[in-house]
Amino acid sequence: PWDVQTAAEAAEAAAQRGWLETAQWLLESVQAQAGNDVGFWKQLARVHERREQWQTAILCWEKVRKVSPRDEDAARQINALSASATIARAGLK
Hints:
By secondary structure, the protein is an all-alpha fold. It is built from six helices and no strands. The protein has helices at 4-16, 20-28, 31-34, 38-50, 54-67, 72-90. 28% of the residues are buried. The mean pLDDT is 93.
């Protein structure tokens, strides 16, 4: 449970099978050890996105942007997820 790479690989397998809660749990169990691993934070963000946990996904993307300020994907995703969160709150989806 403390190895980031192993948890990330297991989470990827779980996500591919549609076991998103398991994927999320696996990643969150090693989040403290992930440090500034941009790939880890992107993977966790995508799991939150698929579970429609917009605010948590945004926090992950903000971590990516903090670690890698030139990452254009992070800024794009933050904007898109903010829009998704607004749409969900408005009940338009």
